[in-house]
Amino acid sequence: MKRFTFHRLWAIVLKEFIQMRRDRVTFGMMVGIPMMQLLLFGFAINSDPKHLPTAIRAADQGPFARTLVAALKQSSYFTFVREAATEEEARRLLQVGDVQFVINIPEDFSRRLLRGEKPTLLIEADATDPAATGPALSAVRAIADSVLDRDLAGPLARLRAKSGAIQLQVHAHYNPENITQYNVVPGLMGVVLTMTMVVITALAITRERERGTMENLLATPVRPTEVMVGKILPYIAVGYVQVTLILLAAHFIFGVPMLGSLPLLYAVALLFIAANLAVGITFSTLASNQLQAVQMAFFFFLPSILLSGFMFPFRGMPEWAQWVGSCLPNTHFLRIVRGILLKGNGLMEIAPHLWPLGVFLLVAMTIGVKRYRQTLD
Amino acid sequence: MSTASPASELAIDVTGVTKRFGPKTVVDAIDLQVRRGEIYGFLGPNGSGKTTFIRMLCGLLTPDAGSGTCLGYDVLRQQAEIKRHVGYMTQRFSYYEDLTIRENLDFIARIYDIPDRAAAVQQSLERLGLQNRSRQLAGQLSGGWKQRLALAACLIHQPQLLLLDEPTAGVDPKARRDFWDEIHRLAASGLTVLITTHYMDEAERCHRLAYLAYGHLLAQGTVGDVIASAHLTTWSVSGPDLPRVASALRERNGAEQIVAFGNTLHVSGRDAPKLAAAIAAVRDDRHQWTQIHPGLEDVFISLMDGAKDNFS
Ligand SMILES: Nc1ncnc2c1ncn2[C@@H]1O[C@H](COP(=O)(O)OP(=O)(O)OP(=O)(O)O)[C@@H](O)[C@H]1O
Ligand SMILES: [Mg+2]
Fold it and tell me: B142 with B207, same domain?
């Protein structure tokens, strides 16, 4: 008697689909919002992020190498978090996203410098978000020149050639041309899904309460989980339509590369969509009317867009903001999408961002079901 | 559903049902017995707790105190079973306005998992004369048609008990009469109906009724019982210048209630000799005075005034 049944679930699903179809305006918004945001955010937002995590692979421990590293550490752009022993390890750190830069000092750096051979300082950068790497890279050039100018004093002054004593070589990985759209467009996926999914489901239950239909629904044998899942399922379909729209636009309009597996992306999107729907449902159990539900949705949407690393490079934000950002599903989804599309990440590489999504979904769903009142009191 | 409800004479049998909202006791220790196949009227002024009581019967609200059964199921613990066998028509229209009539009925039929759904929906459309409007959106229907839809929807799972909360509010007299004919047909076929209303003519069409005020059950029984239990004496007076008669009566004790009915006044009181004395004092030959049987309305107004003194 108290069991969950599929026929009742199906009744709710069908009803939601019919209502969705009748509500032309909302239906239009579900397609219109992604399109509008794509156009609006096709432009970049600039900022000057600092303290970017950096690994160093120093094959040379000579005096010049040491002073150069010391100067880079002094600058506020880099925070040295790791020593990479091998090129392999350096590459992995970049791919997983543990560091933004790897600075390679070749083994004969000091010797070649003294010989006036202009040794190469190789900087590898994760350039998925050009806004995050650009300012730091231009700072390196200036730092290197000024440090070496000071060190190369007296008899060594002749080494200070006009074009500098060393060569700076930058390998921008993942987005070599620094095209901001490559970063913004995949990021939009999370933003669009957060916005529409949370708002629409927040309205779904509040509307029933406001129109009085909830009283009728509660007087029937239907169970809370049936109502909740039945309301979520149709909107998962809507979410997938939005994901597809954005991917199509990303490919055909913005030419964003798609290195990783799209099925993997679609699979992860399910988790993210469900997490947002659960948030919406939770809001709808808290709100007493539709206006409140929309306000709560915006309350969630703003940090999701501002603190997730979509609007501003995540590492450029103050620590408290990063902390808030880490609790938001969009932050993790953003990294997953960028990772899969731009870096060709597989399941292993995205795993660190997958479990926070899972935890979030679980928590939101539990609160939602608990808060859903089966009676009117 | 295999457990048939225990055979019992009573469809509703509750005692001491109480509901509080904050400090306010909205339903106060109500006992109610309704027999199977009976049309039971539930009357009372606005805010007297009728809707709240009905919501407790069908499991939408949990009573703060009290116990009893509804269709043989415990009202506190077997709410799921009760929901299966009760049809509840809410005071406010509560079907989906953006679904058509047929879609609404189909939705409800699915929720109750009715075996031959298509046939059941078609049958209920036909029985209520809705088949020509089945594709119309519920939100575009007039009040009378909405009411028909709501009745059709709460009958679709063949409930044993109907709880109707002011089903005829805002419905024209012809449609009301048709509605009541339908209710009597349903009751004749064994359905129990608990119905709230503010109309006296409807109250008189119930087998038995109860009068509620400020959460207290003040009277119950057949129309005759209720009228008799009020011990009211009523006089009718007609003639010129009735407002002057009314104000003269108001200055004396005994005439507790003076109500204008068209060209007559109904003057009532619970103490017959006192009332007679008051009337004798203002009486003259320009007016006709006759003692009449008090109507339900006279009784209800008297009950309500009495309750006001006691409970509020
Ligand atoms: N959820 C609630 N929270 C607080 N108070 C409530 C709630 N529901 C009802 N009430 C109060 O309880 C009282 C009884 O309300 P109820 O709706 O049961 O009256 P009613 O007899 O149905 O009135 P009407 O004839 O106007 O429909 C009212 O004073 C109402 O304000
Ligand atoms: Mg009411």
Answer: yes
Residue range(s) defining the domain that contains residue B169 = 7-227
Distance of alpha carbon B209 from alpha carbon B114, whole angstroms: 33
C-alpha pair distances (Å), B252 with each of A46, A101, B199, B260, B274? 88, 100, 31, 18, 10
Assess whether B237 and B285 both reside in one domain: yes
CATH of the domain at B209: 3.40.50.300
Question: For residues A139 and A77, is the Cβ–Cβ distance under 8 A?
Answer: yes
ipTM field: 0.81
The chain A residue lying nearest B137, using CA atoms, is A22
Q: Are residues B127 and B30 in the same domain?
A: yes
Q: Given CB atoms, is B58 within the 8 Å cutoff of chain A?
A: yes
- For Cα atoms A54, A56, A58, give the angle at the middle one, nearest 5 degrees: 170
A17: exposed, middle or buried (C-beta count within 10 Å: 0-12, 13-18, 19+)?
middle
**Residue B179 pLDDT exceeds 80:** yes
Interface of B with A in 124-183 (CB under 8 A): 137
Residue B4 at interface with chain A, using a CB cutoff of 8 Å = no
Total-model pTM: 0.75
Q: What is the pLDDT of residues B272-299, one digit of tens each?
A: 888 888 888 888 888 888 999 988 888 8
CATH 1.20.810.10 fits A52-173, yes or no: no
Size of interface A-B (CB pairs under 8 A): 75
At B206-230, the pLDDT tens digits run: 999 999 999 999 999 999 999 998 8
| Cβ-defined contact of A10 to B59 (cutoff 8 Å) | no
List the domain boundaries for chain A. 52-173, 180-376
